[in-house]
Design goal:
The protein is α/β, with parallel strands linked by helices. Helices cover 34% and strands 19% of the residues. It folds into two domains: 174 residues, Rossmann fold; 117 residues, UDP-galactose 4-epimerase, domain 1, CATH 3.90.25.
C-alpha cells in the first residue's frame, strides 16, 4: 500500500505511520517539522498545510490518505489536491452534541452543527471536526470516519492519563491518593498505538464507514487500579464525590487544579460510554490498561517536557485535608 499520512511525526499520526511501516507499506509523511522529527523508514515531505501542497505530493496516486486535521481549510485543500483510492479522516467524539446518553454510536446521537471556516477557539473543536467530516463525506468517494475518544499512552502531552501515571510513580505503598467521583463511574480510553494500528488497517483494507474509536468502558476504580499495577504502586484511594470536589474548586477532566478522568455525572454519563463493538468488529484490538501505564511511565521518565496538568502535590494535600 502507498500511504500518505498528513502529519506523521507526533503522537497519533506518528503511531499510524509506524504501524503502516511495520506492516511493510510505503509510507510518506507530511509536516512542517515543528513538533516532531521525521520517522525513520518513511519518506518525509516538509510542507506547510496552509499553503498549496508540493507538486511531488499532488502528482502521486495514493492507495490511502490519513488526515487528522481539525482545520476545514486544510482538509478542503488536501481533498482538492491529492489523489487517493481511500481516505481515512480522524475526527472525534466531540462532534456529538449529546454527552449524557449511555451507549451512543454514529447515527444514534445528535451532532453539533458543522463549522466550515477555521477557528482557533477550542469551544469550536467539535463543530470544526464535524465540518471536516462533512468535507470528506462530500469529496472522498471511499472513506472511513474515525471518532476517537480519550487517546492515551506514550507521547500524550494532554495530561489526562499521564497525570495518574505520574501520581503513581510518586506514590509510596499504602499512601492515600485522591480519586474522583463514584468508583463505579465508567471510563473509556484507547492506547495511541492500538488506535494507530487500527487506522493503518482501515487504510490497508479500504474499510468504509463511520466508527467511534474507543476501548470497552470500565469502572474508574478498575482503570486506576490497573494504572497503579502497571506502575508498580500500591495506593489507598480516597474517593471524593462530585459535590465534594466542586466544593473545593477542583476542576474536571484536565487543566490546572483538576483531577483528570473525572467528569461530573449524570451530565457526562455518555462521554466515556460509547458503543465499542462496531470498531472491534472492524478489526480494532486493544491492550490492557496496565501495559499502557507501564509504557507511559517509561516514556514519562525520559520526556523532556511532558506538560503535566492536574492537581499539584500541595493542592492534593490541601484537598485531602479539607475532607478530613
Amino acid at each position: 500500500m502507498r500511504l500518505l499520512v498528513l502529519g506523521g511525526t507526533v503522537f497519533l499520526s506518528r503511531a499510524v505511520a509506524e504501524a503502516a511501516l511495520s506492516r511493510g507499506h510505503d509510507v510518506t509523511t507530511v509536516s512542517r517539522g515543528a513538533s516532531g522529527s521525521p520517522l525513520e523508514g518513511a519518506r518525509h515531505v516538509h510542507a506547510d498545510r496552509d499553503a498549496p501542497l508540493p507538486a511531488e505530493l499532488a502528482g502521486v496516486e495514493y492507495d490511502a490518505v490519513v488526515d487528522v486535521s481539525s482545520r476545514p481549510s486544510r482538509v478542503r485543500s488536501a481533498l482538492a489536491q491529492l489523489r487517493a483510492a481511500h481516505w481515512v479522516y480522524v475526527s472525534s467524539i466531540s462532534v456529538y452534541a449529546d454527552e449524557a446518553t449511555v451507549g451512543g454510536a454514529p447515527g444514534m446521537l445528535p451532532q453539533h452543527e458543522p463549522l466550515d471556516e477555521d477557528s482557533d477557539d477550542m469551544a469550536d473543536y467539535g463543530r470544526l471536526k464535524a465540518g471536516c467530516e462533512r468535507l470528506v463525506g462530500e469529496r472522498a468517494q471511499s472513506r472511513a470516519i474515525v471518532r476517537p475518544g480519550l487517546i492515551v499512552g506514550p507521547g500524550d502531552r494532554s495530561g489526562r492519563f499521564t497525570y495518574w501515571v505520574d501520581r503513581m510513580r510518586r506514590a509510596s505503598d499504602g499512601e492515600i491518593v485522591l480519586a474522583p467521583g463514584d468508583p463505579s463511574d465508567r471510563v473509556q480510553l484507547i492506547d495511541v498505538r492500538d488506535l494507530g494500528a487500527w487506522i493503518a488497517l482501515l487504510a490497508e483494507r479500504r474499510t468504509a464507514g463511520v466508527f467511534d474509536a474507543i476501548g470497552e468502558p470500565a469502572s474508574i476504580r478498575d482503570v486506576l487500579d490497573d494504572v497503579a499495577a502497571g506502575c508498580g504502586a500500591l495506593p489507598r484511594w480516597r474517593w471524593a464525590t462530585d459535590e465534594q470536589l466542586e466544593g473545593v474548586e477542583v476542576s474536571p477532566w484536565m487543566g490546572p487544579r483538576s483531577l483528570p478522568l473525572w467528569l461530573p455525572r449524570p451530565a457526562y454519563d455518555g462521554m466515556m460510554t460509547h458503543l465499542a463493538a462496531p470498531a472491534f468488529q472492524a478489526g480494532l484490538r486493544t491492550r490492557p490498561v496496565a501495559d499502557t501505564a507501564r509504557d507511559t511511565l517509561a516514556w514519562l521518565e525520559t520526556a523532556d517536557d511532558p506538560a503535566l496538568t492536574g492537581l499539584t502535590a500541595d493542592e492534593e494535600r490541601e484537598v485531602l485535608a479539607a475532607f478530613g
